[in-house]
Amino acid sequence: MQQKQKDVEQELSRIRAEYERRDASQEIAARYGPFNDASLFLSHGLERNLLALLKQHNCTQLAYKRILDVGCGTGGQLQRFIAYGAKAAHLSGIDLMAEHIEQARRVNPAIDWRVGSGHQLPYADESFDFVTLFVVFSSILDAPLRQHISDEVWRVCKPGGLILCYDFMYANPRNPAVVGIPLREMRQLFQHPDVLFDFRRVTLAPPLSRLIAPRAHWLATLLESLQILNTHFIGIIRKE
After folding, report:
1. Residue 128's CB: how many other CB atoms inside 10 A?
2. What is the pLDDT of residue 1?
3. C-alpha dihedral (144, 185, 179, 93), degrees to nearest 10
């Protein structure tokens, strides 16, 4: 037990160090900034698919939904949910990085922001209608920790609630700090008797997006619609 706890702490320390490195990189900030054409193309595609999934699963009336974003970063995704009709008082976000939470709290103090890890969520059982994880599992190299987080997410999600995950399916050989999450692993992470999965392939491979989107937006859109060169998934997991 002590060794498992030590392994978890080591992995969490590694993740914190990696995000500190990313936060300090001007190159990464510029690559994923809102004024980068390729980044804008990717974010618009993600938003379009997210809204389509919510509509498909009859989750468009968000005003009274309690929503949790695990690995919320600086809170951008929860801010988008407010634009979709959610109420700040019903939103919660948790992230490992205290600096991210401080920034998020400055932008919108009405949201319940917490510093913490997804494997020990400080919330009661079945307390959220909707739980989101954006590029969380791929940031965790330790498989048992990924399972702990999925178990906690399942615990705090209400019966009939939705879990939404967005992540990439393939390992990046140039980035050993992340791991690909194939869809079969997502099914294993949430392997419960009463569960419904609805996944779709999205997001044109980022290297292609960076090359094509600034020059021929129409071509990037066409390639993404074909899905063959898409590297990510977005999916709903319904707790039946």
Report:
1. 25
2. 65
3. -70
